[in-house]
C-alpha cells in the first residue's frame, strides 16, 4: 500500500512539474464506443481495490489526458459547466476524424474531416440514452465559428457537415450540431484512427455478426460470414468500411457501425465490466490517451459522474438512430418533419420509438437468442421517462406512455436488438 501511495505521489509531482509529451492517437468511426469506454471506465478505479490503488490509477489516468478544447456558444462565450455537474439530462458530441492523426501508416491524409459525428443524449431521469448519427454527406448550415488563432470564420449556408471540423475545429462541429438540433452540447471529444485500435484491444474485442463474407480493399477489412470477434486493425476497418457494406454509402456505414456499437453495449453489460477494475482501468487509460476532449469533459470527476448516470440504463433503452435524411444531388439533406419530431423528443426529454428497419447496412440476426425478437419484427421502444407526468394528453405523434413514434423511414435499433452487418450489394 505504501509503495502504491509513493508511486501515486511521484506521478502527481511529475504532472505538477509539467505535462509530458504524449503521442497517443485518436479514433475515427466509433463514437459511442469511445464515450462508453470513458464513461464506464474511470468509475471502477474509485473504491474498487482500496484508496492507494484508486489514488495511483486516478493520477495515472489524469496524466494521460490530452490537451483539451474550449467550447463556445453562438456569441463566442466559453461554455464550461461545473465539474461533476451531471444532474438531469446531458448531451455529449463525439466526432471521428479521418486525418489519421499523423500516423504514416494511413498515408498522406491532408484533410481533417469529421466523417463520423454522433450525439449522445441522456434523459433527466437517467433511464434512456439516445445516440444520433449524422451522415457525413448531409448538407447543413455552418454558423460563424471561432478561429483558434483569433477572430472568427464566416457562416456558411450549405455545406456538408463533415467540413465543420476542418473549418473551425471541434468547437465549430459542436456549434453546427447545436444549430441543427436546437440542443445545448456542453461536452465533446474528437477521436482518430489509432484510438479505435487501442480501445478495441482494451475491451478484449467486440463480437459482431456478419451476414456474408466482407472484403474491403479500401480499409483492409476481411471477415467471414457468421460471428467474428473484432479488435485492433480489423475493428478499425469494420467501423470505417463503406464500400464493403449495404449499398456502399455512408448511410450503410452508419447502420453497420450500429451493429458494432449495440454489441459493444451488450458486451459491457453481460461481462459485468463495472466489477472488473483491471479491464476498466485499461479502458480509462486508452480513452483518455486517445481522445481530444473539451475542457468540460477533460477531468475524471466529470467522467465518473457520467458513468454514474449511464451505468444502470437497460440496454433496451439505449437507442441508436440515424438523423432523418433523404438523398439529394451530391449528398443527403435533412428530412425536416421527421428530424423535428426526433429533436423535439430529445429537447422535451421524451423517449422515442423506432418503427422503421435498421438501415441498408444491417439486418436482423436470424440466430438471435430465443428471448430476443428479431430486429425488424418489433419497434425499438424506449421506456417512458419516470419523471413524465402521470396524467395529461399525449402529444401528437406519440406512442403509448408518452413515447414519440418516429416515421418508418427513420432507421436505427436498440442495443438489445441483435443485428448482422449486410455485405455490399449493387
Automatic annotation (TrEMBL):
<feature type="compositionally biased region" description="Low complexity">
    <location>
        <begin position="368"/>
        <end position="394"/>
    </location>
</feature>
<feature type="compositionally biased region" description="Polar residues">
    <location>
        <begin position="414"/>
        <end position="426"/>
    </location>
</feature>
<feature type="transmembrane region" description="Helical">
    <location>
        <begin position="34"/>
        <end position="57"/>
    </location>
</feature>
<dbReference type="InterPro" id="IPR004474">
    <property type="entry name" value="LytR_CpsA_psr"/>
</dbReference>
<protein>
    <submittedName>
        <fullName>LCP family protein required for cell wall assembly</fullName>
    </submittedName>
</protein>
<dbReference type="Pfam" id="PF03816">
    <property type="entry name" value="LytR_cpsA_psr"/>
</dbReference>
<keyword id="KW-1133">Transmembrane helix</keyword>
<keyword id="KW-0812">Transmembrane</keyword>
<feature type="region of interest" description="Disordered">
    <location>
        <begin position="353"/>
        <end position="426"/>
    </location>
</feature>
<keyword id="KW-0472">Membrane</keyword>
<feature type="region of interest" description="Disordered">
    <location>
        <begin position="1"/>
        <end position="24"/>
    </location>
</feature>
<dbReference type="InterPro" id="IPR050922">
    <property type="entry name" value="LytR/CpsA/Psr_CW_biosynth"/>
</dbReference>
<comment type="similarity">
    <text>Belongs to the LytR/CpsA/Psr (LCP) family.</text>
</comment>
<feature type="domain" description="Cell envelope-related transcriptional attenuator">
    <location>
        <begin position="114"/>
        <end position="269"/>
    </location>
</feature>
